[in-house]
Amino acid sequence: MYFIFHCDLLKWRKGIIQAWAARSIPYQAIKPHWWLAKPLVNPFPHLEFLVNSQAPLLDNFFTGTTLDLYSSRLIEIIRFAGVQFETFPTTVLDVVTRKPLPYEYKLFHLLEIYPSIDWERSKLESEGLSIKKIEKLVLNEKCLSSGKLLFRISEMKGKILIHQDLKAIFDKENIIGCNYIPIEQYQLL
Fold first, then answer.
1. Residue 141: which region, alpha, beta or left (left: phi > 0; alpha: psi -120 to 50)?
2. In this structure, are 120 and 103 located in the same domain?
């Protein structure tokens, strides 16, 4: 069984827990390789993220960007599972003092992407190359039988699938900040 995997928008006090980029992100450095799940060819600049040091620490921070900010703990679990990826160092700063915090986080770039959608059994509405509406998402047999643990859907590059076995490891290790939507419940209306 697969789930759509992304960061969770966890509420804390009067807002959500998130990491803000301290400077603008140089998206030109990551295009088009980020979405094609290919290693970046240009050096990626060191980024800084601001977090509220009083809030709970997450393993998967919402950044409000296309970039994934993962804890070293989460990255090591994914590495041990054999998933292909690359990471880029970051510095996490306190949002008030702007001083570095002693936490290790990295930008995570997933390097696995596979065709996954069963077009005949899914109920999708597309416009050009973009899928605009999903009433029912069904994975194809090749995807289901592959057993791949974590990957981007090639037909929807912004969506990541996680296998139930890797999700179970995340749950056992108390990974915080992840949201999992079962494929049969996923909709985009």
1. alpha
2. no
Q: Cα dihedral angle (169, 182, 64, 118), rounded to 10 degrees?
A: 120
Determine the structural domain holding residue 102 and report its residue range.
9-110
Q: Give the CA dihedral 67, 73, 75, 76, nearest 10 degrees.
A: 170
Q: What does the pLDDT read at residue 4?
A: 97
Q: How confident is the model at residue 70 (pLDDT cuts 50, 70, 90)?
A: very high
- Report how many domains make up the chain: 2
Q: What is the mean pLDDT of residues 156-164?
A: 94
- 77 assigned to some structural domain: yes
Distance, in Å, from the CA atom of 98 to the CA atom of 79, rounded to the nearest integer, reads: 31
Of 58, 89, 110, at which residue does a domain stop? 110
Cα distances (Å, whole numbers) of residue 42 to 14, 26, 30, 31: 39, 11, 8, 10
Q: Is the pLDDT of residue 31 over 80?
A: no
pTM of the shown model: 0.93
